[in-house]
Write a structure and sequence with these properties.
By secondary structure, the chain is an all-alpha fold. The protein has helices spanning 7-30, 46-50, 54-66, 70-86, 90-103, 106-119, 130-142, 146-162, 166-182, 186-201, 206-209, 211-227, 231-247, 251-267, 271-281, 287-303, 307-324, 331-344, 348-399, 402-435, 457-472, 483-489, 494-504, 509-527, 536-542, 548-559, 563-577.
Length: 579
């Protein structure tokens, strides 16, 4: 897939930097003195260069950069900086540092970006020190450090808002959305893209003045909604992009938009249209853009039972990944299919290689999970262990006095005895109520009073009716049901659905679904004796849970008793009937 959150995002970086350079140099260039001699005749001695105007030095820097004469460019920037320092001109120092961020290795480039920030920290210029943070963010992005890239983009965005710089606000917000999208937060990305589009529409003649930005937004909005399975919204933005590309006679943008349309066709099961479009344009692409399109061709081939053709596409993807060393979101599935293929072909060597690649890409996700585990360990596990240690130390002090121990045990017995008696009585009462068929509400009554302002009235009423119909069905018993899937089936987005469930059902989505499942389980168990023969795993499968343990926990959470208590009493009742 030509993912503008990655491949085209790089091109966006390049165009952004060019724009930054021109806009930043404009004030200096316009006020520069006339050139006194042709650039080609100027020597490279420090003495002669230091007498040049800033415009002349920058022209030489541009020339060295274009010819990839990096050592010459370094010398020119050193002279540029020295001249700017001697004249106390921080903006010119920043211009010189900019070139160094473009040619040095990441670590050194970041230090030059920091220098831009440092020398322009107090600048009133609308683009400084924002440029320094943007450059740092871009470098971190390129080396895959999305956390630091995101941090610097956010700082740049805040500065752009403070300085009322529309271009930098738009650039930063779109970059932030791209990073969030790459890290599995498509919903958040879609929201940011939508806000960026709203910001863009506030500008006069935005489709012409900001044509590239507008097309990137149409492309990314369509893809973000596609990832969220919101196909109608995806098609809406796609059609707007195609229409604009046709008006502008932009064949490249038109091609890219049409290729997104092929992905939409695939998910709408229009495989022939998807295949025709992909075959027409895929060979015009390269890198991961081409790999993603080959993936869809492979999936379509599998739908047609042409497994050999599918494998040929997956092998091409493998070759592309080897070259680019840049995996994309569907790459794990590709290697899974290749591993299965080689296993059936009894090619153990290729099978192992495919599995190793699959494991490698899985491990990349595990790294993120490891960070969460470490955070949980520091924030929860260690404090809990310290508390337990403190309790043990206090108990040890008590043990030094036998009288206190005996008194403690006697008191504990007096307290615990009634506790367990009351608990057992309550459990028995709860089981009896369940056996007697006490109605288990599939959802609590709707909350009256204030309505959530963030959900339009028409959407709110429609969702409440759909949820009511959903509760009367058995669709919630599916094990694969999640909020994204349910939102798709209800023709809405996950934000609205989450707000409605939390507000009117007074619970989050997982609890809402589990409560529906347990209510059905109680009703079915009391009516169908055959179910009493099932073990926990069998009951879990019947009522939409993945494991017996998850079924048991959800049952206890809703009813206050474990299913074993109910099953035991129901079994006694059945035996009594036949005795």
């Amino acid at each position: 897939m030509k993912n503008r959150n990655y491949n085209a995002f790089r091109l966006y970086h390049a165009s952004l930097l060019i724009g930054l350079m021109f806009s930043c140099f404009l004030g200096t260039v316009c006020n520069a003195q006339d050139k006194t001699q042709p650039m080609a005749t100027i020597g490279l001695s420090a003495d002669s260069l230091s007498r040049l105007t800033y415009e002349q030095i920058m022209e030489l820097e541009d020339e060295a950069y274009e010819k990839n004469e990096l050592n010459r460019l370094r010398k020119l920037t050193d002279i540029h900086v020295h001249k700017a320092k001697s004249e106390s001109n921080p903006l010119e120092m920043a211009f010189a540092y900019y070139y160094r961020t473009m040619i040095e290795e990441p670590k050194l480039a970041i230090s030059y970006a920091d220098s831009i920030i440092l020398v322009t920290a107090d600048s009133k210029h609308p683009k400084y020190p924002t440029l320094g943070y943007l450059l740092k963010a871009m470098i971190y992005y390129e080396i895959g450090d999305y956390r630091l890239a995101l941090h610097n983009y956010i700082v740049a965005y805040d500065l752009a808002v403070e300085k009322k710089n529309f271009d930098d606000q738009l650039s930063s917000s779109m970059a932030i959305a791209a990073i969030r999208n790459l890290n599995g937060q498509s919903h958040v990305a879609a929201d940011i893209y939508t806000r960026s589009l709203h910001l863009l529409k506030g500008e006069e003649d935005y489709k012409s003045r900001y044509y590239e930005d507008y097309m990137i937004l149409m492309y990314n909005l369509s893809l973000a909604h596609l990832r969220l399975s919101q196909l109608d919204s995806s098609r809406l933005y796609l059609n707007k992009g195609i229409e604009t590309a046709i008006i502008k006679n932009d064949t490249i943008e038109h091609r890219d938009m049409v290729l997104v349309g092929a992905q939409l066709d695939y998910y709408e099961h229009n495989y022939k249209n998807a295949k025709d479009t992909l075959l027409k344009y895929t060979n015009q692409l390269e890198g991961n853009s081409k790999a993603m399109k080959l993936y869809y061709l492979g999936k379509i081939a599998q739908k047609s039972d042409d497994d050999l053709l599918a494998i040929s596409y997956y092998k091409q993807i493998d070759s592309i990944i080897k070259e680019t060393k840049e995996p994309f979101e569907k790459v794990k599935e590709v290697y899974q299919q290749l591993a299965i293929h080689y296993s059936l072909q009894d090619d153990q060597e290729q099978e192992i290689e495919s599995l190793e690649k699959l494991i490698f890409h899985d491990s990349l996700m595990a790294i993120e999970q490891k960070g969460v585990i470490q955070q949980a360990t520091m924030a929860y596990d260690i404090p809990y262990l310290k508390l337990q240690k403190k309790k043990a130390e206090e108990l040890l002090k008590v043990k030094s006095n036998w009288i206190l121990i005996l008194g403690f045990m006697a008191t504990l017995g007096m307290l615990v005895g009634p506790y367990f008696y009351v608990k057992a009585h309550r459990t028995k009462k709860k089981v009896k109520m369940l056996m007697e068929g006490s109605k288990q509400l599939k959802s609590p009554p709707r909350k009256v009073g204030e309505h959530p302002a963030s959900v339009p009235k028409e959407i709110r009423n429609e969702l409440l009716m759909k949820l009511e119909a959903f509760e009367k069905s058995d669709l919630y018993l599916r094990k694969d049901l999640d909020m994204t899937l349910l939102a798709q089936e209800m023709d809405t987005n996950t934000s609205y659905l989450s707000i409605i469930i939390n507000h009117y059902k007074q619970m989050n989505f997982p609890k809402y679904i589990n409560d529906l499942k347990i209510s059905t389980a109680i009703e079915e168990l009391t009516k169908k004796p055959a179910l009493l023969k099932y073990n926990y795993q069998g009951l879990a499968e019947t009522f939409g849970f993945k494991t017996g343990e998850s079924f048991s926990k959800a049952f206890h959470k809703k009813t206050g008793v474990y299913p074993s208590k109910l099953l035991k009493e129901l079994d006694k009742r059945e035996k009594a009937k036949h005795s």
